[in-house]
Amino acid sequence: MAIAVDTAARFSTSASAGRPVVELRGVTKRYSNGTIAVTGVDLDLRSGEFVSLLGPSGCGKTTALRMIAGLGEVSAGRIDWPTSAHDWRGQPLRDVGFVFQEATLMPWATALQNVLLPLRLKRIPPREAAERAEAALAAVGLEGFRHAYPRELSGGMKMRVSIARALVTEPKILLMDEPFAALDEITRQKLNDDLLALWAKDRFTVVFVTHSVFESVYLSERIVVMAARPGRVIADLKTSAPFPRDASFRTSPDYAAACRVVSAKLLEAIAA
Amino acid sequence: MTDMVARADLQRTAAAAGTDAEARPVFIEERRWLGITGSGWQKIVAPLVIGLLALGLWEFVVRHAGIPAYILPGPWLILRTLVADWGTLSGSLWITLEITGLALVAAVLLGGLLSILFTQSKWLELSLFPYAIILQVTPIVAIAPLIIIWVDNTLLSLLICAWIVAFFPILSNTILGLNSADHNLISLFQLYGASRWQMLRYLRLPAALPYFLGGLRISGGLALIGAVVAEFVAGSGGTASGLAFRILEAGYQLKIPRMFAALVLVSASGIVIFLVLSLISHLLLRGWHESAVQREN
After folding, report:
1. Residue B230 touches chain A, beta carbons under 8 Å
2. CA separation for the pair A74, A91 (Å, rounded)
3. What are the pLDDT digits (tens) for A92-151?
4. In the predicted model, is pLDDT for residue B20 greater than 90?
5. What is the pairing mode between strands B32-33 and B36-37?
6. What's the rounded mean pLDDT across residues B33-44?
7. What pLDDT is recorded for position B15?
8. Which of B7, B192, B283 would best serve as a mutation to test chain A binding (most A beta carbons within 10 A)?
9. Which residues of chain B make contact with A150, given a CB cutoff of 8 A?
10. Nearest to B10 among A144, A151, A156 (CB)
11. Model-level pTM?
12. How many angstroms separate the CA atoms of B97 and B94, rounded?
């Protein structure tokens, strides 16, 4: 099973048939101080895809992610949600879950209450909300910790609560902003595997921002490499290693080969 | 009880969860005697011993040097006066506490309400906050006579004075707290289309709670000081006289032991107010806030 890494800007597989969930067209973000965070980003996010945004710091990957979530206006270009409903002002009803770099939990609320938050804000009836929150906590292996406060949990467990909170609304897209960057290597690998298992089960679209070549290769089907000053996309790579992936994939020659290709692209991005 | 069950639940599942549950922080659990931990007893006993020693020394010096009671009464005499004059003093204590309590309640209500309004509307804050500062920095002793002239009802005028002193720490602390919610959590609330009310109810108010409670503890003491100062300025006698008036009155009549007895009651009130507010703060924050727990390093 050879792993092919090619620089196809567009590709089509049977899994990603139909219109993209999100389309970015010439997306540019200029801050009021004149800094151009990203410029001219064209990107299609297809249903069920696991995409990594990889690049050096300052390449605007977080900015791009936040704009997809609707946090922050686009300065130029457009972000469309072709398969989603729109409200009366023509704004797309973005259906996203967001995981920040920090767990970003409410310290005054228990794990369960934190997971309940999105449902509560969306005014889901309490009984149904409670059931769904319990299920989401169980899905990340924390059913025994529903009444624990964030300060009683370890870093990895807090991140699990954060993931459960993002998935509890069953979003079309899960946006993750360097979610495991602050964790130790062992915890990170465990969470990588658990994330892949959750993705394999429910097949939501994942956009995963990272600065780690290894993490992006291990997790994703597609790696979008970005360069800084100004932030832009310089490569759109596809990895064809089959899922499920596990520890044996990390030591395989295919993995090493893919890492080499992606590293070379990242070096290009840094030099660009 | 449910807490205990939940905790046992935690212990059991910690190993089975397959997460990095072993890396959870450990909190200090101390043995308790009569519901108070060892370090808790230390906190009570150590100052108590010092206090008793100082009182003993005071009593000894007063007796040994034959200092007359109108210069410096001994603690024993003060205690006897306190008991003998309890009828008058307790009435005054009640009035001072009433003014302090009402002023504190008014400070909480108005300070809390204003801080919420200020954080909802930038214009309101910009235009009104400077006046709150002016009210705070102007010495209460200087405005008290005016307020006492303007307001017919003595009790009400004292209440207003105490409120002016007490409300600012609550206002400024709560504003700080309401504005200190984690910006990523704010993003998250926006992401789920939270309304202004939901943002306030589920995010800003809980985030402001520790700050508000910090302000409340300061305001508790200030309300008492405000009540006492205002009454000194008012200097009014009659039925509605608080402890400050008793101190003035005893001073005029050279009843120095009684002056001390009233002073003891003022101090004791301040201590009790502080302890009660600290307890409320601890009960509300225990469980989640760093100030209410001890970590094992």
Report:
1. no
2. 13
3. 888 899 999 999 999 999 999 999 999 999 999 999 999 999 999 999 999 899 999 999
4. no
5. antiparallel
6. 79
7. 41
8. B192
9. 288
10. A144
11. 0.84
12. 5
> Is the CB of B28 inside 8 Å of chain A's CB atoms?
no
Q: Which two tokens stand for residue A62?
A: 């977080």
Taking only residues 266 to 295 of chain B, the set having a beta carbon closer than 8 angstroms to any beta carbon of chain A reads: 287-290, 293
For B203, nearest residue in chain A (alpha carbons): A106
In whole angstroms, give the CA distance from residue A62 to residue B117. Answer: 33
B38-65 and B75-84 helices cross at what angle (nearest 10)? 100
Q: What is the pLDDT of residue B237?
A: 54
pLDDT for B46-74, tens place per residue?
A: 999 999 999 999 999 999 998 998 889 99
- Tell me whether residues B27 and A152 touch, CB distance under 8 A: yes
Beta strands in B36-121 (DSSP E): 36-37
The proportion of chain A whose per-residue pLDDT surpasses 90, expressed as a percent, equals 61
Rounded distance, CA B1 to CA A149, Å?
17
Q: Which pLDDT score is estimated for B137?
A: 87
- Which of B1, B11, B19 is the best residue to mutate to test the A interface, defined by the most A CB atoms within 10 Å of its own CB? B19
| CB-based contact B288 A96, cutoff 8 Å | no
